[in-house]
């Protein structure tokens, strides 16, 4: 019997040949000025060749103020960036898949920014946890400045202008990164957002900046350009976080976003499995609730490389599409392996090293050449 993940699906205006997307994964392999490299072209092309029906890129910074998070992170803030991304979108399209650019503002979780030494967030609250060694950081996070209205307006403009540049670079859409503890999630989170203006207080107010970003992108790019939003309860610096108001808060967040008409919601499960982060009180799942409340297609994430979990999530109506992160790094041809019943390689943390040279792209190319 055909695995349900291999059936076609529509996501916004995108026709997907199956329900398997590559989850956004930072590979910090751009040039120091944020320009994507030729190795990144090989890396992204491999997923399309391997049968993924949608490639979502790594988080890409959106302005020359506070948005950059890591060294060698790609940007989409200059003509040079646009031209280099064009190589990647052309390669992925030639291999048969659409590609969506993830737009990311790191906010208080920036650990390298060539444009400033200062970090910025909704309030001057020092982030929990420690900087991430895999992105060259160590020790505690600095205390961010509390963003002024002018800073917020500039960040929103950065998202909108980046989306317009993404369209120019040949992307089929953008995904607004409002998950995993970065800027928009810092606004969404009760303990990092202590503001008493229209962005603080209720869950609807805390979600309103993400909604504003989606609206600003729509205004710049029009309705025939796919715009998704990625949300999560867990964060790279706080795997235990859950939305305090449970299902009620989730409903408020989802409906606040649905009002501005994104094409899809993508619920991430950073550092944990879907079943652990998605289950809310009463047995309802966060992804299933998002579908019910918004009527939008929902991408589920977290351990979807397990074919049994993947089948359950789709067959029981918890999501429309699945995104795969570590399982895709281990198996860039995961969809083809699933279709042909071939064994799946297990993810090994070593596969991430060394990030800045994208050893993967080279290894995959050598393997493809050897088998040709
Ligand atoms: C190396 C690596 C980099 C990641 N970078 C990003 C990122 O740039 N944006 C994002 O939203 N999530 C990022 N994530 C989280 C993944 O998209 C995904 O949510 C997580 O790995 C759980 O899914 P999985 O069980 O399929 O791996 C990253 C994960 C890994 C392993």
CATH topology: TIM Barrel
The quaternary structure here is: single chain
Beta content comes to 5-15%
* Rg on CA atoms, Å: 19 Å
User: Which CATH class?
Assistant: Alpha Beta
End-to-end C-alpha gap: 29 Å
CATH architecture annotation: Alpha-Beta Barrel
What small ligands are held by the chains? flavin mononucleotide
Please state the average pLDDT score.
Answer: 94
How many structural domains are formed by the residues? Answer: 1
Instruction: Summarize the amount of helix as a percent range.
Output: 25-40%
Cross-sheet strand order for the largest sheet: 3-4-5-8-9-10-11-12
Full CATH superfamily name: Aldolase class I
Low-confidence runs: none
- What is the number of beta strands? 12
Biggest sheet record: 8 strands, parallel, barrel
If you had to describe this structure to a student in words, what would you say it looks like?
The chain is of the alpha/beta class and 372 residues long. It has one domain (4-371): Aldolase class I (TIM Barrel). It is 36% helix and 14% strand. The strands form three sheets. An eight-stranded parallel beta barrel has the order 3-4-5-8-9-10-11-12, surrounded by six helices. The protein has a two-stranded antiparallel sheet with strand order 1-2. A two-stranded parallel sheet has the order 6-7. The radius of gyration is 19 Å and the shape is globular. Flavin mononucleotide is lined by residues 23-26, 58-59, 102, 177, 179-180, 230, 268-270, 301-304, 324-327, 352.
């Amino acid at each position: 019997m055909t695995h349900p993940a291999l059936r076609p699906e529509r996501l916004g205006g995108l026709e997907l040949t199956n329900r398997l997307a590559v989850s956004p994964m930072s590979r910090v392999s751009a040039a120091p000025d944020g320009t994507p490299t030729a190795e990144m072209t090989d890396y992204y092309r491999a997923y399309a060749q391997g049968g993924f029906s949608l490639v979502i890129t790594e988080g890409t910074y959106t302005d020359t103020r506070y948005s950059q998070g890591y060294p060698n992170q790609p940007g989409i803030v200059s003509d040079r960036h646009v031209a280099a991304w064009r190589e990647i979108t052309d390669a992925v399209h030639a291999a048969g898949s659409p590609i969506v650019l993830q737009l990311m503002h790191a906010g208080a979780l920036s650990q390298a920014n060539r444009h400033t030494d200062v970090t910025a967030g909704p309030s001057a609250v020092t982030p929990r946890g420690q900087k991430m060694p895999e992105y060259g950081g160590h020790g505690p996070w600095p205390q961010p400045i509390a963003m002024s209205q002018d800073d917020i307006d500039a960040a929103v403009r950065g998202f909108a202008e980046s989306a317009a540049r993404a369209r120019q670079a040949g992307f089929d859409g953008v995904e607004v990164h409002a998950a995993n503890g970065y800027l928009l999630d810092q606004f969404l989170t009760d303990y990092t957002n202590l503001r008493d203006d229209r962005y603080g207080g209720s869950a609807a107010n805390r979600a309103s900046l993400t909604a504003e970003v989606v609206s600003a992108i729509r205004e710049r790019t029009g309705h025939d350009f796919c715009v998704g939003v990625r949300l999560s309860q867990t964060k790279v610096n706080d795997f235990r976080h859950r939305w305090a108001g449970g299902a009620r808060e989730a409903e408020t967040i989802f409906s606040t976003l649905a009002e501005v008409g994104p094409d899809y919601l993508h619920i991430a499960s950073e550092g944990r499995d879907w079943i652990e982060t998605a289950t809310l009180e009463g047995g309802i799942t966060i992804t299933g609730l998002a579908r019910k409340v918004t009527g939008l297609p929902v991408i589920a994430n977290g351990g979807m490389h397990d074919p049994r979990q993947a089948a359950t999530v789709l067959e029981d109506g918890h999501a429309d599409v699945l995104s795969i992160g570590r399982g895709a790094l281990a198996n860039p041809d995961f969809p083809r392996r699933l279709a042909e019943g071939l064994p799946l390689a297990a993810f090994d943390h070593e596969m991430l090293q060394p990030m800045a040279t994208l050893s993967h792209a080279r290894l995959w190319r050598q393997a493809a050449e050897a088998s040709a």
